[in-house]
Amino acid sequence: MVSPTKSAPKSNHKHTKEKIFHPQSRKAGQLERVQLRKAKLVSAAQKKVKRESAKVDRFVFFYHAIAPEVDALSLEELHTIVRDIWLKRHDEELEQEKTLRRKGRPKSVNQLRLEEIILQEREEYRTGFEVPDLTHAATVKLFRQWGQTGVGYLDILRYIRINSEDLTQVVVSKPGRHESLKNQDAHMSKNVV
Fold first, then answer.
1. Is 37 exposed, middle or buried (0-12, 13-18, 19+ CB in 10 A)?
2. 10-residue block means of pLDDT along the chain (193 residues)?
3. How many CB atoms neighbour CB 86 within 10 A?
4. Three-state secondary-structure class, residue 102
5. How far apart are the C-alpha atoms of 77 and 84, rounded to whole Å?
6. How far apart are CA 169 and CA 133, in angstroms?
7. Is the whole-model pTM more than 0.70?
8. What are the backbone angles phi and psi of residue 11, rounded to the nearest 5°?
9. What InterPro entries does this protein's entry cite (predicted)?
10. Cα–Cα distance between 8 and 111 in angstroms, integer?
11. H/E run at residue 142
């Protein structure tokens, strides 16, 4: 039996007070710089995640826009997808925001955000809209193998830049880093020469 006079075992370590530094001391400056650096790293990481998520959303859209039985799209079909589906995907939500707003009231934050997104995307399409080269069969085949998770895999694809001002103009913005794309491009250049 435990005698009532014995108390819980005491720990051997001493309680130390938190060190307080003079605000103008060198150590306080070091600690402040460490905290600022940590805050900057966290902020940069959050911005990167947001940027990559927007990039992934665009590629997920084009991933689902390709019919499974199609090997590659024509340039006209690619322009139709961008112009009639991608650029108009926010129109319904914007109209709903406009109808919810009463007369004489300022625009809602959501309406302003949607209008800004629509304006930016239309301007991007006018000046040059970068998409995976869905007119290239090898790129489409690689694109279908993507697991829709991260942006790392997307760097190996071939990309083209299309614009609304000249529907026949295509600029290869990134040639693609996958071996099958390099081999096919080398084979095509041998046949041209």
1. exposed
2. 58 69 86 93 89 82 89 92 92 92 89 94 93 91 83 86 91 85 56 39
3. 18
4. coil
5. 10
6. 13
7. no
8. -85, 150
9. Tma16, Tma16_sf
10. 64
11. helix 137-144
Residue whose C-alpha is closest to residue 148's, from 50, 63, 52:
63
In sequence order, which residues have a C-beta less than 8 Å from that of residue 32 and are 6 or more positions away? Answer: none
Residue 135, both tokens: 């007119």
Q: Using CA atoms in the order 128, 48, 141, 83, what is the torsion angle rounded to 10 degrees? A: -30
Q: How far apart are CA 123 and CA 95, in angstroms?
A: 20
CA nearest to 82, candidates 116, 119, 121, 53: 121
171-174 and 129-132 as β-strands: parallel, antiparallel, unpaired? unpaired
Identify the CA nearest to 146 among candidates 157, 137, 135, 138: 157
CB 139, CB 176: distance < 8 Å: yes
Can you read off the two tokens belonging to residue 2?
């435990």
φ/ψ (deg, to 5) at 60: -65, -40
Strands annotated E in 56-156: 129-132
3-state percent breakdown (helix, strand, coil) of the chain, nearest 5: 55, 5, 40
Both tokens assigned to 65: 């826009």
Assigned token pair, 120: 């930016």
